Amino acid sequence: MKEVAELLKAKGLKVTPQRIAIFHMLCNTVEHPSAETIYKSLQETHPTMSLATVYKTLDALKKAELVQELNVGEDSFRYDAKVHSHPHLICLSCNHVYDLHTDLLQDLREKVAQDTDFELFSEKIYFYGICPECQKK
Amino acid sequence: MKEVAELLKAKGLKVTPQRIAIFHMLCNTVEHPSAETIYKSLQETHPTMSLATVYKTLDALKKAELVQELNVGEDSFRYDAKVHSHPHLICLSCNHVYDLHTDLLQDLREKVAQDTDFELFSEKIYFYGICPECQKK
DNA sequence: ATAAATGCAAAACCTTTGCACGCCT
DNA sequence: AGGCGTGCAAAGGTTTTGCATTTAT
User: Strand, helix or coil at B96?
Assistant: First the structure.
């Protein structure tokens, strides 16, 4: 909890209870929640926090590169506090989003940059399918 | 033009001037336009066509697997008539979206499936950077 | 003390929907 | 003739914005 506040301060962000709550939640989940989901799950502990604050905070965290925004193809964005570039797996049955930690994509950005003459900064990689759990059903 | 109508009919879609115009445009551009962009660029030739028809048509084409929907991180979707799975390059300076035809990602889906026990159907891969043109400026 | 963050409401924006009319088969 | 597509307007959902108040530094 403490370190969450430190991270915010280190990025020059004002440390508020709302920001701590949102960032702390994102750091301790594997769920890749949307703004709405974050808002609802913090209702119990922070009943006065507004949805607008969630959006504003996510924007601040995004600009500070403390979270990344995901576009899995739903109508809203999802957020991930693991900012290191990594692919995501989306289960089309249960709609869960999983992190994929792999070295399969090692050097990929560099190779693509060489192929295309682009100067590349980042990539977003999404795989769509059925997760092991849902395959059993 | 003719073949566009054939493709629609082959998928069991009713062939209308609006559908031909939209699909024809998507087949003959490299721009990855949004619904709004499609609508505007067809205003001259099809002034009575509504934006709702563009959306409904894109939905039909998507379901028929004649176009794919892209999520590059903007607030609206873009569309691509090249439905074969391929990565996209987004220039953060001029906002153009480029197709990347490469074999760098050969076997990638299969390897990820093996690593994760997912049953995979598709993937979306986006690289972000600065295109060669914009680097010169 | 100052500047910034919050909360509320309203607005903006993209997309979808309902329905009457017209067109394709 | 029947069903589907179109066009219009309205609604829906997500995200942004303006502004007065509160809070962090």
Answer: coil
